[in-house]
Amino acid sequence: SNQTSRKPDSVCFSHWRNFRDRFFVTVLILFMLFVICGGVWAVYPVVFSISTFCGIFHCILTGVLAVFTITSYCLASFKSAGAPADMRWGSYPMVGKNDLENYTFCTYCSKPKPPRAHHCRSCKMCVLDMDHHCPFIGNCVGASNHRAFVFFLISVVISCSYAAGMTIYSSYHIWPPLDFENLASTHRSMGYIKMLIEIIGTLASSAFFLSARGLVTVYIAFASLSVNAGIGVLLFQQLSYIYEGNTYLNRLSSLNVMHGERGLQNLIRFFGCPYSVSRVLSGYSNTGKLQDNSSSKLL
Question: Which spans are transmembrane here (predicted)?
Answer without folding.
Answer: 23-44, 50-78, 149-172, 192-210, 217-236
